[in-house]
Design a protein that fits this description.
With 144 residues, the chain is an alpha+beta fold. Helix content is 38%, strand content 28%. Strands 3-2-1-6-5-4 form a 6-stranded antiparallel sheet.
Length: 144
Amino acid sequence: MCKFAEATDTYVVLGTRDRLDVIVLDSRVGSQAVLDLRLTPGKRLNIASSLMGSALLAAIPELERCYLQGNVERRAGRDWPMLRRRMAEKIWQVHELGFCMSLGEWEPELATVAVPVCVPEQPPLVLACIGRSARMARAPVERE
């Protein structure tokens, strides 16, 4: 994580699911990165409104995913249709590409790529790389 963060001047985050949240386990930031995201271990992100959450949802069995989405729907209220659409799109990206990305979609100045990491007999993890959208164009992100 350190080497990748340094080589790409990005923020690299490792997380896992805890109920309806993603909890940050570890993070590293490149010395030239101009981000201060404060994604330190223990930080919680809503599974429904984070790219890391969508990547984690893509890694779990469909029955479990449907159960979690039902709980997310009850919590989200009026935001549910938009969140459901975003989650479905990102889950599809993981199944088709192996990763999902948001290039300025949720936060205009941020680009994020997330990938589930599955270790046998362990809960799924998610690894994300976050950088400035101006420095992360779609073609290189998809290629690299």
